[in-house]
Specification:
4 helices, 187 residues, eight-stranded antiparallel beta sheet
Length: 187
Amino acid sequence: MKTIKLTIAVLMLTLMSCGDGISKQPANAEGFATIEKELKDKFGDDAYYTDVSISYDASIGNMLSLTVTDAPESLKMGQWVQSQQGWKQTSEITLEVPEGTKAADFMFQLDETINLSKLGELVEKSSTQLTTEKNIENPTLYTAFVKFPKNGDVSKTEYSINLKPENGGTTFRFYYNINGELRKMDY
């Protein structure tokens, strides 16, 4: 009987800690690389995405929202969210693509070209710039996401980052091109 209780306790702790891998990661290159690894563990190395967004709330940590498929030709994708409660599929969507095109042309994969490590690096860069230029101490991540163009032109992909002062207030927005060059910022 003790063995069963111990096994159940270990299983419960394992299940409860699954969300912590993402929710507790820092908003930097290393933290976002860990999040990307967990996405690949969950959805596979060859998964296709139309969006990936990381939001932060001080009381619960990071939350993810994404649209993903492992079979683009099926035109079926799942919308998923992840928070402290773990992964939950919120809906299933069916894509429509122009005749003569492939669905994968309108999706991206997490690889060397588009990756969350670069997004985390740009969050760090934006935070430093905000501290230097606006004298805002400890800006915190509000949301960071990969914005993939609807026409499928990978070169037009953007990394978008929204930061706020630690105690709330104005949202500062940074937009970077796929190479990590600042395209514009809104203060």
